[in-house]
Amino acid sequence: QVQLVESGGGLGQPGGSLRLSCAASGIIFSTTQMGWYRQPPGKQRELVAVITGGSRTKYGDFVKGRFTIARDNAKNTVYLQMNSLEPDDTAVYYCNAVLNDLSATYWGQGTQVTVSS
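Structure (tokenized):
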């Protein structure tokens, strides 16, 4: 059974920071590409960041250096550090896993991030 469990969402202030975590089980985590996607209200899901098993990263264009993705293979956990938060960052954030042979893709249930003063 594959599970991706997000945590760390909640209310953030404009200009503030949040760190999201995604704990994975049921996969060989160290060889799996992990990612974060988000879905703002009334909009389609979009890429936030991905990190490969070799720790290569890429980010959505809107991030503009504000977010950082990282992984801790010892904890089977991927993180998204979000700094300089903006109201437009408000969305449901989803953890994503893609197996290294591209045989399967998995999604977490999502965690709500709301940025408001």
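Residues 13 and 115 are 5 Å apart (CA to CA). The chain has a mean pLDDT of 96.
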